[in-house]
Amino acid sequence: MPRSHRSRVVAAALALGLAAALAGCDSGAGTAPSPSQPSMPPPDEPIFASDEEALAAAEDAYAAYAAASAAVGADGGVGVERLRDLVDVELYKQSVEEFRQFEEMGLSSEGTSIIRNAALADHRALNDQVLISAYLCRDVSNVRVLDRTGDDVTPADRQDRQSLLVSFKGTRGHLVISQIEPWKDQTPCE
Predict the structure, then answer these.
(1) What's residue 46's pLDDT?
(2) Listed residue (13, 171, 30, 137) closest to 91, CA to CA
(3) Residue 146: which H helix or E strand, with range?
(4) For the domain that residue 96 is a member of, what is the CATH number?
(5) Residue 58's closest CA among 138, 181, 169?
(6) How far apart are CA 42 and CA 10, in angstroms?
(7) In this structure, is residue 92 part of a structural domain?
(8) pLDDT tens for residues 121-131?
(9) Cys-Cys link to 178, which of 24, 88, 90, 149 (CB 3.0-4.6 A)?
(10) Each residue of 104-120: pLDDT tens digit?
(11) Domain tally for the chain?
(12) Exposed/middle/buried for 144, CB within 10 Å: 0-12, 13-18, 19+?
């Protein structure tokens, strides 16, 4: 196979792998809130004033993660430590490995994903943590994967709109993403 075609196939496979990896797997491990963070309200007090407030906190946490991921991708996989405070330990380890491969392949990305149609799945307190799950539609149609020469190697068959179930944990004041998984129901992307 010619080198340029082979490079495009490998880059496409890596780009798809990066998207899948960033979709995450939750091992159940994560970071515990630091002692300096505020404690949870007593059980008879609501965690958030409303479902809308819980969803807004989740959307803010995901937006910070998406912006940091886009910046790491634009830098060719360098600086993945920008994700450290935005995701749990296992998702961070996975991101480090995926962006390392991105860097080794000489790939970078340009553009930013857009979140559409966020909907709250659940929010509750568990011991000293807030747990939130939300359905999101991630639109990556404006994101391009580039090789070392700046050529666009974005897979032609990439699904530009992805329905996701994203799990968050932490405190009311600081949520991290603990899991991002594809959601079989495409309703959030309709």
Answers:
(1) 60
(2) 30
(3) strand 144-146
(4) 3.10.450
(5) 169
(6) 52
(7) yes
(8) 999 888 888 99
(9) 88
(10) 999 999 999 999 999 99
(11) 1
(12) middle
Provide the domain limits for residue 94. 3-27+41-189
Return all residues near 37 (Cβ < 8 A) that are at least 6 apart: 171, 173, 174
pLDDT under 70 in the chain at which residues?
A: 1-46
Asked if the structure places residue 9 within a domain, the reply is yes
User: What mean pLDDT, rounded, does the chain reach?
Assistant: 82
Considering only CA atoms, which of 93, 83, 72, 182 is closest in space to residue 138?
Answer: 182
Q: Which residues contact residue 60 at a Cβ distance below 8 angstroms, ignoring those fewer than 6 apart?
A: 175
| Tokens coding 91 | 């998702």
Statement: the pTM of the whole predicted model exceeds 0.70:
yes
1 CB burial (10 A radius; 0-12, 13-18, 19+): exposed
Q: Confirm whether 34 is domain-assigned.
A: no
DSSP-derived secondary structure for 29-83: --PPPPTTSPPPPPTTS-SSSSHHHHHHHHHHHHHHHHHHHHHHHHTTTTTGGGG
